[in-house]
Design a protein that fits this description.
Elements: H1 2-9, E1 18-23, E2 31-37, E3 44-49, H2 57-77, H3 82-85, E4 89-90, E5 99-100, E6 106-111, H4 125-142, H5 159-172, H6 182-189, H7 192-203, E7 210-212, E8 221-223, E9 229-232, E10 239-241, H8 244-254, H9 272-286, H10 292-296, H11 298-319, H12 331-348, H13 350-361
Antiparallel strand pairs: 1-2, 2-3, 3-6, 4-6, 5-6, 7-10, 8-9
Helix pairs in contact: 4-9, 5-11, 8-9, 8-11, 9-13, 11-12
Bound molecules: 2-acetamido-2-deoxy-1-O-phosphono-alpha-D-glucopyranose and magnesium ion.
Amino acid sequence: MKETLAKIGKIFAFEGAIKEIRPLGEGLINDTFFVETDAGSPNYILQRKNKNIFKDIPAMMDNIYRVTNHLKGKIIEQGGDPLREALTVTPTLDGKLCYKDEENEYWAACLFIEDTITYEYADSPELAAQGGKGIGKFQAMLSDMTEPLADILPGFHNMRFRFQQWDDVLKKDPVGRKAQVQEEISWIESRRKEMLDFWSKVETGEIPTRVTHNDTKISNILFDKQGNVLCVIDLDTVLSSTCLNDYGDAIRSYTNAGKEDDVNLDNVYIKMDIFAGYTSGYLSETKSFLTRTEIDNLAFSAKYITFEQVLRFLMDYIDGDNYYKVKNETHNLVRTRAQYKLLQSMEENYNEMCAIVDKAIK
Ligand code: GN1
Ligand code: MG
């Protein structure tokens, strides 16, 4: 691997000599590396993108390039620092946004942003409010982006598509795990209708589509040392979809008192003060452009995205662990149960969640 990384490092237009390339982070999909260069030169992030999941990586990189350029234009207008407040894609020496190696693996790079903090969970309502503001601003800056983005992950948060995949995997039961997870399967089936009903509103246009991030978990946000959001990262999933995905997925990660894959389910529940913090920060930036229907569906979107995550983890378990990276053979099942516990906690607190949204909008 070291040799491969050294070879790939030479392909990109990095300033300064490379000192070391080492693994970074806990992403579930791509392989991420930190590229350390000589003192005085910027450092970089290098990623091997997951080609099993992203079928058209050049199109994905083109989306990222266009979105970051749009963001940089806004940041400059607002007097901000475009190199710290938006990702900067680093091209190859011959000017391409990604590189395909001899093994048909795709690599891409961006500038590393120094002096930032990342979190796995929100430790205070204030931090959650800043996170909400950050995603709200991100959506606001992209709200006038009219050029269409390539649909590089068809059906990503589309429940009708997810249920098609689900029905297929259950029919095939490729590794014979279905019999052990009958109870977990019933968690999905008993909510099929309400989840599809929500998605119908997107299909009919009652809920509009916008440029959205689609993977807004807290670890995809860089905070500065004062606790403000500096930059939204991991733009692989920027797509045209409902912005409720971004609110819902953020609530799924910020408010969870436990871990996404917590073995101890007593740790997992929704922290309502964090929910209130995130919601007030998010709405302070977005209430001027969100429609009434979007606002009325915010609380539901948290249940929707958490349910989708239960379905996706369980489906991958039944399928034999082909999608998410796993640390052991029950990892996807552990994730399923932990996310289900979070969903149940949201269901128990749903009326209060709706009341908090109503209060924040007044
Ligand atoms: C994946 O790779 P990462 O960790 O940013 C996944 C998200 C899930 C998330 C769960 C393209 O994101 O949809 O919500 O894991 N990304 C893709 O942690 O499927
Ligand atoms: Mg991601």
